[in-house]
User: Fold these one by one.
Assistant:
Number 1:
Amino acid sequence: MSKIFFIISIIFVFSCKQEQSNSFELKYIKNSNEVYLDFENKLNYDIIFLAPNTLHFSDVKKKRPTSIPDGDGFPPIIIYGIIEPRHTSKFYQQKLDSIHNSYLTEIGNANFINAQKAGDGNSVYYLKPYESTRVKYKLKIKQSPPYYEYASKYKQNYYPYEKVLKGNYPEGEYLRRFSKLNFGRAKFVLQPIIEDSLFINISEKDTE
């Protein structure tokens, strides 16, 4: 009986370890005016995922996004991160861009195709099993008038890919079309989320 229990215990521990390592993970590193998102594929198959070209942050003190104005205008400090693309999947990036442009033409907004900025849209990444990649964002920190001393803690607003793909968002349709492509042996997966982890402290001394 004890031998059977011992064998079952070994199997249970092994399966728990296997389950923990069988994942798609995201960690972050804050370095001066840069943020790095480290993605690691611990799954046993190739994956394709998206990363937003702009990271947005909310002012924890005021509980509102900093890069989007409201009825009171912009907050005292505006902070966001612009991606510096590298190691993207050029083939699938072209696929995504093509679907996006075709969709804009389809809905009568072809004039917006050449009006996109560096921080618009998404970047496509491809990782084989147990590969990792680092995505770099350059932080833009600006103070808006009226100018006065101000400091707060800022939390990253993760792009809600799951809600966008399932809901009625402006960019939802072209992202859904991309997610349903035949990626061969790879699978399309959502970007993992770090709950309440990416916080940074900023004051007016850090602004440009």
Note: Residues 2-21 form the longest helix (20 residues).
Number 2:
Amino acid sequence: MSSLPPFSGDEPTCAKCGWTGASTEYLPMGDCVHSPGDRGVTLGWAANERLHRECQRCRYAWDEAIVEPGLPCADPEPDGVLHAQRRHPDWEYATTEGPRKRWDGIDVPPCDDNGDPDPTWERNLDAGHPGEGWERFDYTEESYWRRPKRPGTSPAERPTRPVHADGTPYRYAEIVAEGWSCCDACHRWGRTWTPEQPHICPNEPKAATS
């Protein structure tokens, strides 16, 4: 029986800097190393195979137990929660905006490349007012939309720093080259945020009014 803490999922919170997200590496029993690169420090010998976790911001590292066969590694978040925060990995999101209480286009979906309403968008009923998909603010109203990502669409937003297929994090030059940026409030990463389709940060909500 392992004395290690259980696997904490893909988005654990770092105990040192509060960052959400960590890399994962399977290690067999043996030396336990908790610093990256050539500065690695051997802390002892681990009697169990384990999952080596490393914070992608401050590089603090720790070990967790492997997932036992037949047991889930973490309870998945409900689709409704992911849609409400506009971060479901299989969907893309858009927001349309108009004047408060004087907006005739609240039910018109975002436009396609030709400037026509795009019927592939559907109302994101989990965002804003539950079951309605809109929100009212001091001077504006917003209408929220969603649609499944099209095949071949590369991820435009992710909860942690971009990584390569082997799990190694991007270097600074790679982040710049691909146009990634990080939200200081929620620490999510994106590369398609524009004034027309801005990042919706769940940690900086607008003050809604009735």
Note: Residues 36-42 have pLDDT under 50 and may be disordered.
